[in-house]
Amino acid sequence: MQVLVVANPANTNALILKEFAPSIPEKNITCLTRLDHNRALGQISERLSVPVCDVKNVIIWGNHSSSQYPDVNHATVATPSGDKPVRELVKDDFITTVQQRGAAIIKARKLSSALSAASSACDHIRDWVLGTTEGTWVSMGVYSDGSYNVPAGLIYSFPVTCQNGEWKIVQGLPIDEFSRKKLDLTAEELSEEKALAYSCLN
Length: 202
Description:
Layout: E1 3-5, H1 10-20, E2 29-31, H2 34-48, E3 55-56, E4 59-61, E5 69-71, E6 76-79, E7 82-85, H3 94-99, H4 101-109, H5 114-130, E8 138-143, E9 155-163, E10 166-169, H6 177-201
Parallel strand pairs: 1-2
Antiparallel strand pairs: 3-6, 4-5, 6-7, 8-9, 9-10
Helix pairs in contact: 1-6
């Protein structure tokens, strides 16, 4: 059984499921941050006037909330002369735009982005089951093993690759001081959510 948790708070709901359904392996429980990942790709595509398919390896770190960290430090865009880093091309309000995109859609449309979430869930499951393209990673909320100094025991969005129906956290990416603070901030929020949820359940 493979489980994708979508309902908010998605990360903490997935963690509660992991704790109270011990028969399901922790590797088989994930939460949806692909919606945020796709929004980040879309924002880069729009700002650089390129097709979404030409942008890859953006990362959503942490919580599916406004504390998430949309990271373009490792993202690239395809050009006729080869892949180019996105970092120097996207400097304005990119991070806050992605963080607040869900709220902006609800404010503008008076409706949630349910269809976009459903499409993102399909993307998440497709890559999990069929595998990610070589050289490309995606963002998934998965059980932290302590990678990137994220506290173990949280469901946290990481960059992952998928093969043979299993995800694997991408290792060895350099994290600068600015990013470190962002990763820690969203981890703190998830730790607070975890403590609150457990206090209600115990």
